[in-house]
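# nightly structure sweep
# worker-07 picked up a monomer target from the shared queue
# config: single-sequence mode, recycle default, output format = structure tokens
# input follows
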Amino acid sequence: MATALIEQGETAAGRRSLGRTLALDATIPAVLFASAAIVIGLHWDIAWHRAIGRDTFWSPPHVLEQVAASVAGLLCGWRVLYTSFWGTDADRAACVRWWRMFYGPLGGWVCIWGTIAMITSAPFDDWWHSAYGLDVEILTPPHVFLLSGMVSVQLGAMLMMLAEQNRAGAASGNRRALLFCTSMGLIVLMFATMVFEYAGVPNFHRSPLFYQITGGLFPLLLLAVSRAGRLRFPATVAAATYMVVMLGLDWVLALVPATPMLAPIYNQVTTLVPPGFPILLIAPALVIDVLAQRLASRNVWLLAAASGVAFVVVLVTVQWPFSGFLLSLEQPNYLTGTGYWDYTERLGPWTTAFFDVPGYQWDPAARTMVGSLDVAAMARALLVATGIAIVASRLGIAWGDWMRRVQR
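# output follows
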């Protein structure tokens, strides 16, 4: 009898140990997987639409996105239930309480909301296509709802990595800080994907709008991770994560066979269309990290001004000539992922021209841009981009300072 009771107790203890492992330990890699899988699935979906068209909701990229969201939401939900009803006082002290009785990490709650948004947007999007046909534009109501869910899951994953970093001791601090910076790099990739239409291909990389959009977006993210991260070069790690994942997507997607299925078909593509070479964010990110270290004890507006100016100057310095190099290569180019165009495009000389550059105009006969650079107009546009980057840098500093205090 005593032996049987002991065995039952050991079995119950084993189940509790397994439940605790799934609730507390497995959540971290699960949400990081979800964050990566969602943005990879999004790029896969874009490449699918550009090469094949929309065929069914149950396409592989859609399934990957929904599975990733479900994994994150279910494990975060189990973590909430376990901590609320079976966790220790220490477990609950490291969580945010909701509705008096439920305890979960801040990032977990954000992941749960993102999962709900992504899953409920799926039938909404399918109904939208049935009612209105193919999308005329990307930002339809179901797509906006889906995108908000995707970003929420990624932000939730980042907040969970952040809390782990901020609570970590010296023994595991660097590993958890690396996970936080990596999760921020995936967010950089997500936001770069959101502005792909204006900043994705190198043809836009000499336009004023490109520098104004990047100046308003990336300093915010890079300053935030630089202020909150505990690595020596956190923004550089985040930018490197973005670039490595983008290059991996380029090289993998360009090997996947594809055949267009929807008319009109003007460009007979044979593979999925990769996203193209990433923006060289690693250069301004490195400068931002150095400035953040050197000016850490100075006025935050000085750091914001220096970072905003440095971001635009460094990005122009590296991206302007590099975009010219990319367009000089034979198209398509597998190594750089450039020169791959949608099946709906009528190819011509325009594919190697820069778009929306001051002083250039469209020549219908030549089907390309002709003219010469209006230096004064470009200088004014870059000044505007610098002002935007300074404001974005200041917001990034404030966000990063808040993230330093996140413990739950």
